[in-house]
C-alpha cells in the first residue's frame, strides 16, 4: 500500500529524529466525548456493532482528525478482541463495561485456550486497518497522517479473561498468579503468541506503528510485574515485524502505573515508552537517555479546566521534556467521555504552538 505521508512528525519523533514541533495524539481520541461518535454508535446499535464493522470503525477513526489537527490516527477497536476470538463471549453491559460469558480459571479452562486464527476470527480488524489507510490517502497517494494499530498486553488480557470483566482489585487473577503460576504462565504464553500474530496482521494490513496497552500492569507488585507482565511484553516485541514495505514500524508500550519500572521497560526493544501522569517527564527523559522516545503524559483531568489552565499545563509538560528529540505528546491515560471537545482543541493548539516556540528559542 504505497503512499506518501504528508505529516510524518509522529513517526520521526518515535525514532528520536528532530521535528519542527511536538506531535500529539490522544488515547481514546475517537470516543464518547465526540457527539459525532455517539451518533455513529447509535446507528451501529451497540459498541460491538461499531467495533466489528469496518465501515463504522473507519468512520469513527477519522472523526477526531476532522475536528483537530492531530498527528496520528489510531485504529478504532477494543483491547478485548483477542479473548473474544478465543471463544470467551464478549459483551458490553450498560453501566458495567465489558463482560465475558466464560472465564478462564481452571486447568480445564486453560487447556481449552488456543491462539485464534487471525484471518478467520479477527478479519474485521485487519479489514478496518486497510480501509482506514485508504481513507487517509488521497487519489495522488498522499496520506494525511500515520495509522497506529494496537493490542492489549498479555497480562492485561489475562486480567479480563480470569476475572470475567473489569475488577477493582484483580483479586482472582492475582491469586492465580501466586497459587497456580503454571496456569498463569500458560495463559500468558498463549496470549503473547496471539498478540504477536494480531499486531503483525495489523502491520501487514497497513498499520504504520503499533502500541501495546498494559493497562493493568501497575496492579502487580515489583517482581510480579517483571514475571507476569514485562516478560511477556518482551516476547511480543521480539516477535513483531519491525519493517514493512521497506519502512520501519515503531513499537510503543504503555504500562499504566509503570513509572517504577521505566528503565526496565525501555530495555526490552521498544521504540517508545508511554507514561502516565504520575511520572515526571523530564526525570524520565534523563533516566532513559537516548534509548527510547517517550509518550505522554498530561493528566486527562486537566481537560476539565479552563482554556488558560489547559494551556499552562500543556506548556509545563513540554518544558519538562525540553528541546530534545523523541517526545510524542499524549494524555497519561484515556480521555474522559465527559470532556468538552473545545478543550481538546485548546490542548492540541497549545502543544503545536508552544513546541514550535521552544524549537525557535534554541
TrEMBL record:
Cellular localisation: Cytoplasm
EC number: 4.1.1.37
Site (Transition state stabilizer): 78
GO BP terms in the entry: protoporphyrinogen IX biosynthetic process from glutamate
Pathway where this protein functions: Porphyrin-containing compound metabolism; protoporphyrin-IX biosynthesis; coproporphyrinogen-III from 5-aminolevulinate: step 4/4
Database matches in Pfam families: URO-D (PF01208)
Any one GO MF annotation of this record: uroporphyrinogen decarboxylase activity
Ranges of residues in domain Uroporphyrinogen decarboxylase (URO-D): 23-32, 148-164
Gene3D superfamilies: 3.20.20.210
Keyword Cell membrane: no
Enzymatic reactions: uroporphyrinogen III + 4 H(+) = coproporphyrinogen III + 4 CO2
Subunit structure: Homodimer.
Protein name: Uroporphyrinogen decarboxylase
Organism: Caballeronia sordidicola (Burkholderia sordidicola)
Gene: hemE
